[in-house]
Amino acid sequence: LLSASPRVTLSWQVADDDGKPRAPSPLVQRMRSTLGSEGPEMVPSVYAPPKGGEALPRPAHEYAILAGLYGSLRSFAGVLPIALRESHGAGSKIDAIRLAGARLAVLEELDPRFHARRRSEAGSLLGPYFGFVGAVREAADPRRRPLYVTVAEQLAACPWQVFVRRFLRIQAPPDALGALPGIDARLVGATVHAALEQLAVLQNVPARLSLEEAVAAGSVELSWPEESALEGILQAAAGKVCRDEGIGLPGYAQALAALAQAGVRAAQGAEGGRTLAVLGVEVDGACTVLDAAGRSRTVRFRADRVDDAQGALRLTDYKVGRPISELKTADKRARDFLRAVRSGERLQAIAYALAAAQLGGPAAEARGRYLFLTEGLEVREFEVSADDTTLANAFHEALGATFAALDAGSLFPRLLEPDGTGPKRCEVCDVHEACLRGDSGSRLRLEGWATARSDIATASVSPAEQAAFALWQLRAETAE
Predict the structure, then answer these.
(1) Rounded Cα gap, residues 288 and 297, in angstroms
(2) Which band of pLDDT confidence, cut at 50, 70 and 90, is reported for residue 56?
(3) Where does residue 61 rank: exposed (0-12), middle (13-18), buried (19+ CB within 10 A)?
(4) For 3, 220, 363, 370, which has the most beta carbons within 10 A of its beta carbon?
(5) Amino acid 122: pLDDT
(6) Which helix (H) or strand (E) is 230 found in, with range?
(7) CB 472 within 8 A of CB 452
(8) Residue 15 DSSP label
(9) How far apart are CA 31 and CA 10, in angstroms?
(10) Phi, psi of 39 (to 5 degrees)
(11) How many angstroms separate the Cα of 77 from the Cα of each of 173, 256, 418?
(12) By the 8 A CB rule, do 475 and 415 touch?
């Protein structure tokens, strides 16, 4: 075969992808010996830019690579349709042109060097990869599902994370090299919740019912069990959590139950160990609010426990984690609570209180509360009544911004906080692979967009950007 041509070129790699030397093929060595070839000549890589007029004929996809690396956007756009037909079987010429146009649109969106409107102060600096997914139009849009207050809190924290997790239903891929499961605060909290629910159910407290049904059924006395009974409840709760999580390691449930015991005891201590008049556990309810456009909207929730507190409704949400505030004085704790509501971080308690008041009782007697069950806390309870107009107004403003962003499709990734710091939420996000997190250019674009929006009149920006900026500003309250 080699002798069939008057001139033959044999080529081989002298180094691998890591730069380590590679030996030539024995076949090459024999052919060189037989044909009496000259010494080998070093030639440039196919991805190196051609020098002068020495360019050799190349496939179209190699020209596209060179144009993308060293040429202009125009030269890249000219060769891309041909390269797609050659290497990807893009079909007809029209199909290749359309596919190339889509690729170029993505490039222009992701790389601000090619963004045609980047110099326009009034123009948007963001696009679909920053969560501008379009307004709600179709009845089947998942954003039309009932909004739960916990999802509203998540939207205020990071709209893009909610979009990926809840609306697109994308899950993190399993890590084949991942470590054995640890016991984190989430699993301990789930066990504490399950144990407190089971404790109530064993004493005939109704569970998994609506707030209206719980009120109509009347209260049941709930007392705290002895140590031996509590041990069995904790073991059963830990076993349920392990089954739900798919964890079958021997001894794991026992360790989880031991860690959750402090939380259950903290709940007992917070109530003073007294008997409670409980209407239900895991109770579903809803409250009605007005969105930014003045329309009536419904926000749903599930309260961990509903009590009859001397004739008044009190709805409780258990928390295992850092409390809203650890400051000593009540007025400073109230200030931190207000900030948490304004930022959209803590909306459940006020939603509970408003829902209880909307059932017809006096607003001053309808109460919602957080009960923090972390070990060693001096202040565990943060309570609010429905007649607290300051907290209620902050609640309505936060939900108004949330509904507006949801309806407009302004679900941006919160790559940084308004004060310029990176959000701690990103450190534990399980869908970060579907996010722009870690891209410094995207972070700068988001920061530039926020700065530009604060300097531009509201009338000159689109409704989607208005909604996004209003949701962005919710977190500005926490930096003050």
Answers:
(1) 6
(2) low
(3) middle
(4) 370
(5) 41
(6) helix 227-245
(7) no
(8) B
(9) 9
(10) -60, 150
(11) 34, 58, 38
(12) no
Label the pairing between strands 276-290 and 312-319: unpaired
Transcribe 346-363 into DSSP letters. --HHHHHHHHHHHTTS-G
State yes or no: pLDDT of 121 exceeds 50.
no
Query: In this structure, what DSSP letter does residue 125 have?
Result: S
Mean pLDDT to the nearest integer, 202-217:
95
Q: Residue 67 corresponds to which tokens in the numbers above?
A: 């144009």
* 147-148 and 296-309 strand pairing: parallel
**In DSSP terms, which residues pair with 422 in a beta bridge?**
none
C-alpha closest to that of 249 among 181, 197, 324, 323? 181
pTM: 0.80
Torsion from C-alpha of 395, 398, 401, 403, nearest 10 degrees: -60
pLDDT of 69 strictly over 70: yes
Q: Which long-range contacts (CB under 8 A, 24 or more apart) does 38-43 make?
A: 42/14, 43/11
Helix then strand then coil, in percent of the chain rounded to 5, is 50, 10, 40
Residues 6+ apart with CB under 8 A from 319: 189, 370, 371, 372, 373, 374
Q: Which residues pair with 277 in a beta bridge?
A: 221
Tell me which amino acid residue 117 is. R
**What confidence tens digit (pLDDT) does each residue in 268-296 have?**
999 888 899 999 999 999 999 988 888 99
Average pLDDT over residues 98-127: 70
Please name the amino acid found at residue 222.
L
How would you class 228 by CB atoms within 10 Å of its CB: exposed for 0-12, middle for 13-18, buried for 19 or more?
A: exposed
Residue 232, token pair as written in the block: 């069995």
Backbone angles phi, psi at 318, to 5 degrees: -80, 140
Torsion angle in degrees (nearest 10) through CA of 134, 135, 141, 142: 90
207/59 Cα distance (integer angstroms): 68
Question: Rounded to an integer, what distance in angstroms lies between the CA atom of residue 209 and that of residue 199?
Answer: 17
Q: Which of 184, 155, 479 has the alpha carbon at shortest distance from 345?
A: 155
Q: Tell the residue number behind the tokens 């209003």, with chain if given.
A: 470
Q: Are 462 and 405 in contact (CB under 8 A)?
A: no
